[in-house]
Specification:
The chain is mainly alpha-helical. About 65% of the residues lie in helices and about 0% in strands.
């Protein structure tokens, strides 16, 4: 038997016994291995972020593999409702595909939302138990509110427009009621 004839036999066997669950389970297995690996190889990302992301991706695919198999199998068993053998076979192929789609659209997201979040919290619980020795500094808003300003500084401040000979004196209009800092944003 040559390699070409073996390949032909494998393809014919897969064509006759086509189950979409096998294809998506194979894809989920490869994704479950490769995505976390590539995530951990990223040198630009924070190490803690990489660990979290890689673990989450791996767990998602670990949940996906049995979900695809289970939903496709359960959906395929519904083909026994058809009396005719030919209709039953065709229905089984279609129901397997519908089972895989149901797993991808409903079962896997639901299972991941139920299982991954508590699992990740459990893993990160140990890290949160360690107290941070450096306490954040609190900003004292009272110091800002207690600034003393002399009235003369506020009363005598005018914009450059007030000293322009080509325009009328707008001193009263341009007098500011607050203290100006050295960092002005904008124009006038």
């Amino acid at each position: 038997m040559t390699l070409a004839s073996k390949f032909k036999d494998i393809c014919l066997s897969l064509g006759k016994n086509n189950n979409p669950a096998y294809a998506v389970m194979a894809i989920a297995t490869v994704k479950g291995i490769c995505r976390p690996t590539f995530t951990m190889m990223d040198k630009t990302e924070d190490p803690e972020t990489k660990k979290y992301t890689a673990l989450r991706e791996g767990l998602t695919e670990a949940i996906a593999i049995p979900a695809y198999w289970t939903t496709a199998t359960l959906a395929g068993k519904m083909s026994k409702l058809f009396k005719d053998k030919k209709q039953s076979t065709l229905a089984q192929k279609n129901l397997l595909f519908i089972g895989v789609c149901t797993a991808a659209l409903l079962v896997i997201p639901a299972a991941c939302s139920v299982a991954i979040k508590p699992f990740m919290k459990f893993i990160q619980k140990d890290k949160k138990d360690v107290k941070n020795p450096v306490e954040p500094q609190k900003f004292d808003t009272g110091a800002v509110n207690n600034i003393q300003v002399k009235d003369d500084a506020v009363k005598n401040y005018t914009t450059p427009l007030a000293h322009d000979d080509k325009r009328p004196n707008l001193t009263a209009f341009n007098t500011l009621s607050r203290v100006q800092t050295s960092m002005k944003v904008g124009g006038v």
